[in-house]
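Posting this for the archive.
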Amino acid sequence: MATEPHPVLETTPDAKRARPSSSARRRLLVPVLVAVLLTQMAVAMVTTAVRQTPTIDEPVYVATAAGYLHEHRVRLNPEHPPLGKLVVAVGVAFAGPQVDPAFTGTQEAAGRHLLYESGNDPWRLMLWARLPVIALTLLFGLVVFAFTRDLAGPVPALTALALYTFCPDVVAHGSLATLDVPAAGFLLTSVWLLWRARAGRARRYLPLAGAALGAALATKMSTLPAVPVLAALAALSVCARRPRDARRALLAAGVVTVTAVAFVWAAYLAVDPRLRWDPGATHVPVVHGLRGHLVRLLPFPEAYRDGMRIQFGLENRSWQGFLFGHRYSGARWYYLPVALVVKTPLGMLALWTAGAVAMLVLRRLRPAAPYVLVPAAVLLASAMTGSRDLGTRYAVFLPMFLAVAAGCVLTVRRRRAPVVVVALAAFVAVSSLRTYPSYLPYSNEAFGGPAETHLRLHDSNVDWGQDLGRLADRLHDRYRGEHVWLVYKGSGVPAYYGIESSDPRRVPPDEVHGLLVVSDSAVAESRGGLGVLLRTSRPVDEVGHSITLYRR
């Protein structure tokens, strides 16, 4: 019995075109994975933002944004330039809050008045204010991906994006209506554009890089130390193609610098085309010496220069620090590096280190080292000289720049390198997912996880006032009817959330009985009467790893 021949597959040119090639499928897989990573990050940030009450700084920024929309002038919060608050204002405009134009209190009082005393819904208003920052944070993820792809290809770029999207600090602060993530992201964007200018089309990319640098300067003044670094990188980008053309190199540095300055002016003009500014309405300290001379030389609006003077005044204060159980006044130069070791996932620390070494050692990556490592190092050194040991948010640029370096580890030609990188990235993802939704108090497994962060750090590292709403739910569910003694450090108003409480610091310790509720930042800074109360109480519960409930 004869067997029938196997059917012959169609091999015509049309059929070949109909079947997607394996390379085409791989190209399609990359944008799918990018979308998956950014979607999980968006879900994490939005669901976190929905549940968090206002942190300490947010009401000031939201009130300032509302003031921009209704008064069209710079009045509140002059110590920070307006661009970040203009971003927040996009969400505030959609929320359409009621604003009291006659209110003349401090910026902190203005934030409280807008959220709790003007008939607005603070939950709704804060969510709308946070959404534009969340959107920006996601866009900066695309910059991380694009930068790494330009350096090392799509697979390393996916690794870098994974580290960025799972970084607890980026998720935590990217879901708040604050300025740290926008300023850092604009800087990264500027550096990426300078790298692209190195490869060609400098006339296109140098002005764009200057605009991105200007956006960073118009968001936070702490980015000013990056200006000479990025100007030098602009010159380096031109010199890479024309090594002996000093005139073009200086011109490139000038284009970036002048464009950045122009962008800062544009940000102030967007708020108030008349550039009205009344320094008498705000206490502007007198700055002497070299600092004062440098401020006078800044080519920015007077409101920006006065904001710098206010910042220097804040730097001259003695702030309370807390590190590994030790309370101190002033600042410690090693605070930020130590805090970063505590609050960065272990796998991420390993990949950051490997990435930095790879960029310095591998010939292929060495040209990119000045772009990725030098700006991050200069900004970290500048932040370490500050007087406010209040959180790793002052170095939130590091997870962005070093994610790019970490992704480049995959260019190392070692057989086990991809396996090790994937394992470490998976470890990062698991560590990050386990802390959901309490990203602010995250610490890695070597330091006990988020439940023990308050033993080593304070303020925005742990407790920034974000869990007042969760506390209200906990008191209602488990402690209904009990008298509450509350020491809350934050901008929220406990009574609005249904928390009826008394301040235990206003009565003798012997009169405090029952449930004592204390923000962990207040615990870290406790002394005197509150210290006595805590030593004679026992912890019975916690909320969000940021508020502890005691029984007396």
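Confidence is low (pLDDT under 50) at residues 1-12. The longest strand covers residues 538-543.
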